[in-house]
Amino acid sequence: MRNLxxxxxxxxxFATCVASAGLLxxxxxxxxxxxxxxxxxxxxxxxxxxxxxxMALGVFRGVGINIAWQRAxxxxxxxxYSEAVQLGEWITKLQPKFSQxxxxxxxxxxxxxxxxxxxxxxxxxxxxxxxxxxxxDGGGLDNNPNAIRLYQxxxxxxxxxxxxxxxxxxxxxxxxxxxxxxxxxxxxxRDLDKYLAWLRNIAEAPTREERLSDGARSLLDHMREAGYxxxxxxxxxxTVPSQVVRKEDGQSFSDLMLAGESEDxxxxxxxxxxxxxxxxxxxxxxxxxxxxxxxxxxxxxSDRINLDPEAMLRDAEMFGAIDWRHPAASAIYFSMRxxxxxxxxxxxxxxxxxxVRRQVLNSLDQLAQQxxxxxxxxxxxxxxxxxxxxxxxxxxxxxxxxxxADLGPDDETRLQRIERLYGSGFRNRVDSAIASAExxxxxxxxxxxxxxxxxxxxxxxxxxxxxxxxxxxxxxxFAETLENPDTARATMAGLLVQAVATQFLLRDAERHxxxxxxxxxxxxxxREINPDPTDPxxxxxxxxxxxxxxxxxxxxxxxSGQVVTSxxxxxxxxxxxxxxxxxxxxxxxxxxxxxxxxxxVAAAGFDPRAVxxxxxxxxxxxxxxxxxxxVRDLDAEDGVDRTQQERK
Length: 648
Known about the structure:
Number of strands: 6
Number of helices: 33
Strand order of the largest sheet: 1-2
Low-confidence stretches: 39-44, 627-648
Shape: globular
Distance between the termini: 120 Å
Oligomer: single chain
């Protein structure tokens, strides 16, 4: 009897445990879904050996992944980044819902492994791998759509690693992003209404080829017969210029520039940009427009780019005509997608929400300062100029944050909350933007920004700063700027570099002269404040001609200090050089810019003497300009002793 009772008791306990486990199954599964840690449903993406391992591990899969994760951390700590990344990639395949591994591997590829390489191509391979790991179809974001840190990290890589200038090869990253998007979307319209209509036309294009008109399908067949299979290849061949030719004879601009023809003989209206392929005569404008819109949509939604065109439209409606050739555009896109995910649950991760909002502000700041993109698809050159309307978008987004109710303690006012989370340096940013808009000639934009600040801070302790007139505000701001020699010199140098770029890239002499004049006004004010030549402050800022020559050198070498910011096309460099006075040429060759100018064009496959021809009578070229390794490399190619020729 006793044994029976024990047995029945055991059965009862077992049944209770089973029932309890059954009751816990639903909440556990819900928690797994909430935390996005369920078993991968993408086994078909795994190599056979990994798919077999994932299934074979069964309930011990988590233990195995934890061991592998710890091993990856140990490898990273020991500096074995390549092995750590390889192991991390396997973990992402075994458990794609483990967001921390995606974050770990992406960061190591973009930052740690990339800096161990020595060429721009190698380094970009790893930076791009870090981006692709999160962005691509089936990547980190697709598998972990609620992992806010992944959105934040991907946006940061675009904003910081690609968009800023700390990495010595940043110019190459910018070229690659601009080149990719120049093929996918090309140069967007500047007017916002036209921009939205243009992007909406792409977003609403058919997603399947069979839904196109007969003429558009025939045009696609024509492109395939010409040897182009993918949308990217078709767009690049038929829409992206691949050469600049003189209209009258088809001779290339590059050849003419290197032949030494004068600027007057090479005016811009004499040339045209020509893609590699031309549309057939039978293709109508409607067929071409429909085909291009279809191909652009295919590019946006491709496995690698993997963006939602409707989301791109939402961003444009909120912020303005975003040029997707700028890395800050992608930073804004992924930040906004992260915020949209967070906004589905207002109580989730307020700290993460604040960090991503700061990223949006930083990217809008970047677009305001450099959002207009100049792309030379033939030479691969990329340059940025200010796009002041994004300062209004910056302020509008900042102001919208003041409506949030969950940013701080209940007794904290909305203004105090915004100042605490976002206000550090905010007014300094916008004050500088007002001054910069005025300096660069956009007075209407400066006035609009001033009015926004006046409205936002009216009635606050700092409101009086914005109650004065625009001219009074600017006088006060420039007086503060001229108190610091580093700031004063950087402002003047920035104006002069922009002037040089405007003159030789956009061929806008009027704008060039206006920028030089503004730099001259600031320089005169500096000299008025610091009139004594023996004063160290006087010596901190050289005379204006020396500053201008420095700006030309920075433009020709694409350098700001020790950081490479761009790579100007060699034909453009030749044109700038031929336009300089002979004394300026001599001064540049004698300066630290001379060796760098020669080294860069030699590395691009040109003879430096053909691009930067030494002025007549200039002595000591081989000693002061041509570094021995450059001369030796050139000599080795054709067996000519150029050093001896120069001495003769």
